[in-house]
Design goal:
- By secondary structure, the protein is mainly alpha-helical.
- The protein has a single domain, classed as Four Helix Bundle (Hemerythrin (Met), subunit A).
- The relative contact order is 0.11.
Length: 164
């Protein structure tokens, strides 16, 4: 082997090793970027799902207040229809939130928050229905009963915020 070849062999070998290391690093970074993008998309879907559930729950809560406020001008079939719709909507919110926890790779804390939301929604449905029932007899009593539903609504909202 000639002296020039021997002298160039070490820098060439160093260059090849550096290029191979850089290529391997780029490959690992690309794989990590893809994994992060997938996780971000999943989190974004969860955020959208929870935001939709919060919006639906807010509209539902406003509807309960509106019904209690206007209960004197509503007839009995309208009150019964609203109460039945209330229970269906609360169940729908619960199903929407449960889909977040049912996705693979979710944490235990998320599962606990979803269980807390399910309990809050169940209590909220009973309390709001009870408040509407009481308001049909005496609106002031219904408003007073609605305060417990309001506290449960705030608790459910807090649990929904914890998910995000």
């Amino acid at each position: 082997m000639k002296l020039g070849t021997k002298l160039l062999l070490a820098p060439l070998l160093t260059g090849v090793i550096a290029l191979a290391g850089g290529g391997f690093n780029a490959l690992l970074m690309d794989r990590n970027a893809v994994r992060n993008a997938e996780a971000f998309k999943a989190d974004l879907v969860n955020l959208h799902t929870v935001a939709t559930a919060q919006e639906q729950m807010g509209r539902l809560h406003a509807g309960v207040y509106r019904t209690v406020a206007l209960i004197g001008s509503l007839d009995e079939p309208a009150i019964k229809a609203f109460r039945a719709d209330l229970l269906k909507q609360v169940d729908e919110v619960g199903r929407v939130v449960a889909t977040v926890a049912s996705k693979p790779g979710q944490t235990e804390a998320l599962g606990q928050s979803v269980k807390g939301i399910a309990g809050d929604l169940s209590r909220y449905a009973k309390q709001a229905d009870n408040a509407i029932d009481m308001a049909s007899v005496d609106p002031n009593t219904g408003v007073a009963a609605l305060q417990s539903a309001d506290a449960t609504f705030k608790s459910a909202s807090k649990h929904m915020t914890d998910i995000v």
